[in-house]
Amino acid sequence: MPFDPSSSSIDADRLWTDLMALAAITEPDRPWTRRSFTPRFAEGRKWLSELFTRSGLTRRMDAGGNLIGRLEGRRPLPPIMLGSHTDTVPSGGRFDGAAGVISAVEVARAVVRSGRPLDHPLEIVDFLAEEPSDYGLSCIGSRAMVGALSQDMLSRTNAGGESLFNAIARAGGAPGTLGQTEPPKIAAYLELHIEQGRVLENAHIELGIVSGIVGIVRVELLFRGSADHAGGTPMKLRRDAAVAAAEVISWASRQGTLQAERARGHFVATTGMIEISPNAANVVPGQARLVLDIRAEDSQEIEAFIKLLDRHSLEAAHRVGVERERLEIISRTAPTPCDPELRAALARSASRLGYSTTELASGAGHDAAFIARIGRSAMLFIPCLEGKSHSPDEWADPGALAMGTATLYDAVRSLDTSDRLRTKEK
């Protein structure tokens, strides 16, 4: 159904205007780009800080460099927190992250316009550096907020030699005080985001209630054979590392498809990095390196896939006459289920407003996964055109953004007076 502005507390026109104004703060030769810790990112933060003030929010920067706007409540309760991030990947889009922050601001403005304050304080957070940064780390601000930003992480440097510690300080944080206080107490965290997939669009469903955020494991494989002349080496005498790698790539796609069909929840497997050495047209490849990205809502699905990968890659190496020199897990994050009560609240709000919903998993990581460590967390997806994200072509319909924001506002109102929420807080 189309969004009906006459029946909503949301100002859809201002919501869209603000989102496009933030998007316009971009590297001129590379839209839409606001990389974390850059002057353009700082410019976007300044604009957002001023928007907080105009919207009736007080503002502060926490130790991790997160920009926070706050609307006081009537009672001394933990805040209901909304937010996302305003940094982008290079040549990213106008909606990933930013839509969640601007929709949260509009929820706060709707509360102010209503003349009916919430019992809980409402906090709007622009988390620092959710996207992969020049310091080899993502979700920096949300990690910092929950006490998951280690000294080793803070000591990481970019190509220019600046440490992450100094970069956070430059962004307005106080990294020297991290770990000196307990993480904040929150009543609930809700994050609106574009889907970054085609499930909602293909099914003509207006909103997605996120069941959980997938765990992600990246596995490195290294095959070593013999680099020989492509013309002088008979086929039967070759030890071609690329052939073993090709077998594994093909197997991973087949096995991933099979496992996705029968998995408990979302499952995908991707061979996203392939390096062949010496990478010359007239040389039999002597080495092949692969990195597989495996994602699932259920960590047991990931472990089952890795066990099969271990066996199959050894078999492929043996058939070709090469060595599988390495199978190593190079990164791992656990799946994060979204809170059932918050999911139910979002679904009830969407239903009250007449919007269709479905449950689906997030195949991408989000700040919500880290905030779930300190409180109940949930996400709401709106459709994005052809599933395109991290791309200049990223697009969400203004009506879809308004529907999502209206649902967020209704859910905040409902949760604010929820007896179950109060019970959890105690």
Automatic annotation (TrEMBL):
<keyword id="KW-0378">Hydrolase</keyword>
<dbReference type="InterPro" id="IPR002933">
    <property type="entry name" value="Peptidase_M20"/>
</dbReference>
<dbReference type="InterPro" id="IPR010158">
    <property type="entry name" value="Amidase_Cbmase"/>
</dbReference>
<dbReference type="InterPro" id="IPR011650">
    <property type="entry name" value="Peptidase_M20_dimer"/>
</dbReference>
<comment type="similarity">
    <text>Belongs to the peptidase M20 family.</text>
</comment>
<keyword id="KW-0464">Manganese</keyword>
<dbReference type="InterPro" id="IPR001261">
    <property type="entry name" value="ArgE/DapE_CS"/>
</dbReference>
<dbReference type="Pfam" id="PF01546">
    <property type="entry name" value="Peptidase_M20"/>
</dbReference>
<feature type="domain" description="Peptidase M20 dimerisation">
    <location>
        <begin position="214"/>
        <end position="313"/>
    </location>
</feature>
<dbReference type="InterPro" id="IPR036264">
    <property type="entry name" value="Bact_exopeptidase_dim_dom"/>
</dbReference>
<protein>
    <submittedName>
        <fullName>Zn-dependent hydrolase</fullName>
    </submittedName>
</protein>
<keyword id="KW-0479">Metal-binding</keyword>
<dbReference type="GO" id="GO:0016787">
    <property type="term" value="F:hydrolase activity"/>
</dbReference>
<comment type="subunit">
    <text>Homodimer.</text>
</comment>
<dbReference type="Pfam" id="PF07687">
    <property type="entry name" value="M20_dimer"/>
</dbReference>
